[in-house]
């Protein structure tokens, strides 16, 4: 299994989280400069459309890109505090020329204490953008803020792959 990990703004995949992901497959974790490239989703699509990407995992701005890319590639996604309701904060162009295959499964993890990307704003986004072909699991962690602790990452990753395989 090939896992594409998309980090958040000015972030990267930690060695501890990479180790967790490697239990489930080969991890591809490119460095992404969202501020310099407003066409990051198109760039990611062009780069990975011919590779055998099975799932996308993204956090914050990586969750924003991961949501759109998963729908373009038609693969499952695990998204932590995706920046979906804040499209104007950092310019990112959502391509309209790519066929929409829709992800079949998405697990969304939201932090109840997140002051950067509020859970209620993401819930509003999903309520307005439900895809008919996608099964969603939304987990709201009441004590979770914007940063994802390794223990939560491990627990949610395990749950995601368990749901994905059934």
Automatic annotation (TrEMBL):
<dbReference type="InterPro" id="IPR029058">
    <property type="entry name" value="AB_hydrolase_fold"/>
</dbReference>
<dbReference type="Pfam" id="PF05728">
    <property type="entry name" value="UPF0227"/>
</dbReference>
<protein>
    <recommendedName>
        <fullName>Alpha/beta hydrolase</fullName>
    </recommendedName>
</protein>
<dbReference type="InterPro" id="IPR008886">
    <property type="entry name" value="UPF0227/Esterase_YqiA"/>
</dbReference>
